[in-house]
Design brief:
The structure is a homodimer.
Chain A (H helix, E strand, L loop, with lengths): L29 E4 L5 E7 L2 E4 H6 L19 H5 L2 H14 L11 H7 E3 L4 E2 L8 E4 L3 H11 L16 E4 L4 E3 L4 E2 L2 E4 L8 E4 L3 E2 L2 E7 L18 E8 L2 E2 H7 L13 E3 L4 E2 H4 L3 E2 L19 E2 L2 E7 L6 E7 L7 H9 L10 E3 L14 H4 L7 E2 L5 E2 L7 E9 L4 E12 L5
Parallel strand pairs in A: 6-22, 8-16, 9-26
Antiparallel strand pairs in A: 1-2, 1-5, 2-3, 3-4, 6-7, 10-11, 12-15, 13-14, 13-22, 14-16, 14-17, 18-19, 20-21, 20-25, 23-24, 25-26
GO molecular function, one term (chains A, B): metal ion binding
Keywords (chains A, B): Calcium, Hydrolase, Magnesium, Metal-binding, Phenylalanine catabolism, Tyrosine catabolism
Protein name (chains A, B): fumarylacetoacetase
Chain lengths: ~425, ~425
């Protein structure tokens, strides 16, 4: 099936802002609460949210094999499980419906009123129920920076790093959409020079700039996914802020990995941008520096040119952009991650989420965490309001943005914005 | 509400085997496929499976506030979310219905035929949809054994171990009930002395003897569970075989913990034995050897005296019992695990599963993994059929059993039995 929805020349009859992240070529998928307190599946064009449940009930998806309630659900899991052919048909149809040369909905005021919402009328929800969440560690620059700071500056990368897209299982229950504030976590920390831990609020609270992909039902228990087929099972991507409490993490993580230093919360941008919409922005990633085992070898463009930005906004103050990076810096690509994840037969289901790991670029202004930007707290960042930051303080908001841009079209993710509240009190 | 269902003097009108794991005092909960290909929630008394969906439809739970379809579901998640008062009411009522002094169902042949199944008529399913699965590392003997083998024999326990119930996130999608075979996983391994990994089948395939608890919806994002309240949120327990590929695990696990060495499969016993049924077997665990931070301090009996056994059965051969252990050896108890898990505000949902970590006792015949029993492969185990084993071979079946016994009653878990098949071929 063709990617008609990607036609860069198509315009919409909707009134949308110039330079929006959500032109008619994007057509992402999300879940929102409407003004009538109904949860529905929808898409977004410009600053309009579009109720796909209502569109379907009104017959606009006629001819596409969809169950009646596919969009009247709390999550996208079932729609994603329907597979790529269905996603493409629906995305192509949405492009047609909102094409400026199509009068059907444009001239039907009653239908328009049922289907269209302005952004202030809706509340975005988690787009999927995440069955399992995996976090990779696929930026060479990030892994090197961390290795230099915490282990041996001369052997910053561990021996397995060049051979394996290193990853670990994360906590799905604490993944929340943009806008949900999080309390500063408490936990055990080992003060410098002490041999007994103390309990208290994290004092080294950090973000991690990541992108995550969402899978469809991919394989059965025991059956690996071949790397050539991996892309078929990826529905789309979101921005992922993997909040981290460095002091808690440092004390707990040996030998079994990060746990409470991460599981207090992760924040995502609420619109899933499909891999189809990102097609024009395919890019080459770095060349492997060591020969890979056959199950991890890819050819052609398997990365994406996605511009990334992190801003920090203190309470009642303007924001400061503190990092500019790009997804294409990632050493390991999503196909390698998915092939590796399943090479042992681990089943991957519809709605599973796999994050990239912190995306750090080659220069200090492209690092993807406060830990790296302030180099372990030794080089505080200057903010536009005159303040300094080594780590995240109470009532700070961290905003991450992502978009692709070529000479024809801009495809964006919007943002994930989340505020850190003081420690929870009973 | 009283624990009437635990009355050790009650007898049932059902014909049940002597010394069964499932006397009328047990009343576990599970999910099964019936002879009519319907999935239902049920319990077990002796060798009868009892259809709770049918019992409810026939009015036997009258007076207990339950939704109509609470037992007509594919998982126990919603029933568990109803909370302890409901679980107790239902368990007490089931005890009444099958009490030998109650003629109502006993004398109703038609109802009996609808409700009762023999074990060969049903197929056990996963009892819950596991939202998140956590694996702890709470046996001091196991952590010490592993530390001796892989790190420093003189400093086997890492500095954080005595202060933290160390845990990590595991993969929920590959947890399967007893009876489902697993393929030997493949993956990357580093041969001795090499600096480049090879790809192939795991040659150090192992089990881990664990118990897991299943939670109800416990807290909201940001809100820790107090240790005094932790027990309230534990529904029950199962036996948990945390299959492990030691060669894959060894190469991949630094610095972020176990991943593909574990995620190819975990096996559980299918009947959840409630914490209520285990009440008579409460026991003291080991005394903390270091002073604990206040949020981890417990008083009274917080462990359980559960006898554990592991048997290995080669294809077409008798089984050999290779380990006898007990859950009460665990250094950290379930209340400490749950309080720790949530102290940072991590939300715990109905159906989440938390495994203990390998349960090793003080003596070599009570170790909970092949890695320890054969001491890294240096002391092969002799089997009854004359063969030897360092690790698990193709077509071996590993069977784990668990039960509690006092002078009045035996409460058991049945078994988790799973066979290892050769590597998966397309």
């Amino acid at each position: 099936m063709s990617l008609e929805a990607n036609n860069p020349n198509r315009e919409t009859w909707l009134d949308i802002p110039e330079n929006t992240d959500f032109p008619i070529q994007n057509i992402p998928f999300g879940v929102f609460l409407t003004r009538d307190d109904i949860i529905t599946i929808g898409t977004r064009i410009g600053d309009y949210a579009i109720d796909l449940g209502a569109l379907h009930q009104l017959g606009y998806f006629e001819g596409i094999p969809l169950t009646d309630d596919i969009f009247l659900q709390d999550t996208l899991n079932d729609f994603i499980a329907d597979g790529r052919k269905t996603w493409r048909s629906v995305r192509n149809r949405i492009a047609e419906i909102f094409d400026k040369n199509n009068d059907k909905l444009k001239n039907n005021e009653k239908d328009r009123k049922t289907i269209l919402f302005t952004l202030d009328e809706i509340e975005m929800q988690m787009p999927v129920e995440v069955g399992d969440y995996t976090d990779f560690y696929s930026s060479k620059e990030h892994a090197t920076n961390i290795g230099k700071m915490f282990r041996d500056p001369d052997n910053a990368l561990l021996p397995n790093w060049m051979h394996i897209p290193v990853g670990y299982h994360g906590r799905s229950s604490s993944i929340v959409p943009s806008g949900i504030p999080l309390h500063r976590p408490q936990g055990q920390k080992l003060p410098k020079g002490a041999d007994t831990p103390i309990f208290g609020p994290s004092r080294r609270l950090d973000f991690e700039l990541e992108m995550a992909f969402i899978t469809t039902a991919a394989n059965h228990l025991g059956e690996p996914i071949k790397i050539e087929e991996a892309e078929e099972y990826i529905f789309g991507m979101v921005i992922f802020n993997d909040w981290s409490a460095r002091d808690i993490q440092k004390w707990e993580y040996v030998p079994l990995g990060p746990f409470l230093g991460k599981s207090f919360g992760s924040s995502i941008s609420p619109w899933i941008v499909t891999l189809d919409a990102l097609e024009p922005f395919k890019a080459e990633g770095p060349k492997p520096e060591k020969e890979l085992l056959p199950y991890l070898r890819t050819t052609g463009k398997k990365s994406y040119d996605i511009n990334l930005q992190v801003a920090l906004k203190p309470e009642n103050s303007e924001e400061t952009v503190i990092s500019n990076s790009n997804f294409k810096y990632m050493y390991w690509n999503m196909c390698q991650q998915l092939a590796h994840h399943t090479v042992n037969g681990c089943p991957v289901n519809s709605g599973d989420m796999m994050a990239s790991g912190t995306i750090s670029g080659p220069t200090p202004d492209s690092y993807g965490s406060m830990l790296e930007l302030s180099w372990g707290g030794t080089k505080p960042l200057k903010l536009n309001n005159g303040e300094e930051r080594k780590f995240i303080e109470d009532n700070d908001t961290v905003i991450m943005r992502a978009h692709c841009q070529n000479h024809e079209v801009r495809i964006g993710f919007g943002e994930v914005s989340s505020k850190i509240l003081p420690v929870f009190k009973d």
